[in-house]
Amino acid sequence: MDVSEIIVPGDTPGTEWRLPVLRFKGHDPKAPKTYIQAALHAGELPGTALLHFLCERLRQAESQGAIAGDITIVPQANPIGAAQSHFGELQGRFDLDSRVNFNRDFPLISIADRSTLIEDLDDYPATNRLKRQLLHMALGADLVLDLHCDDESLQYAYIDEAFWPEAADLAAALDMEAVLLSDGESSAFEEAVGFAWKYEIPGERRPRLPGKLSVTVELRGERDVDPALARKDADGLWQFLSARGIVRSEMTTAAAFSGPAVPLDNVEIIRAPEGGAVLFHRNIGERVAAGELLATIIIRPGQPDGSIDLHAPQDGLILTRTSDRLVRRRGDLMKIACGGASKASRRAGALEN
Fold it and tell me: Which site among 2, 172, 204, 338 is 20 to 30 Å from 321 CA-CA?
């Protein structure tokens, strides 16, 4: 395993950020190249734990000559966000300087222009330099996995329709309970990777991308940083790499993916109509029918009309739930994967900012 560091100079004198990069050299130039990163939102650590245990297996495989394709791993992809702790709370989702989500505003370029990402880096502030270097590394691979997690959540993934159903093997190997089929219309990291491949010829969109994969994996919730879960997920990812011919091992056959795979338009986002204390009546992983009571928000405690009940707009599977119990007006409470399209309007691209 080769360990190197990318140094990102800070925007004020005397500061810099260090980004460790772990590389495993494959022996077969025809095998797919893989790039995996975690903790782009710095407080989302299930992926970091997964990669810690995966690297144990990769080091052993390397000593046995069992790595076929090059593998690049960035286990903590956002040292800038990891340092943004204020009043005892980590602020690792948004850059405090630009106020932009660390998983947005990645450059949308053609793969032919990959080299331009790291040209004239001194012209960019630290956060943009970091994003350009992460994207540059990813575009040197064939398979790209961006490991995240949600708040309280099942295991699921965002997968561009251009990679589906070929990516069902990843969903099965990681025991995902749902897949959300994205439209590839945002500037999130995995969609910027897909954009570069789809527009290899500028202006001409390739609808399918055989042999390629770029996925955002949501590894349950923020508090699911657990050794047993991390080892289980590392075993699942190892199985995926083995099935794709990237590592050589005795592989057990994964069960086929059986969860729902729905477009983003079929995701009901339950939002708070007013701020208050939320009481949940249903939990993640439960299936609900249209009209069922999901949550009660206490908006005026103790008063006769002091609460609001929220009901399921249609049948579906509860994917996520906020861990907050004091919620703001229009705050997200739940995501529900449904069989039909939501009647709520949705902008193209990712579900959240």
Answer: 172
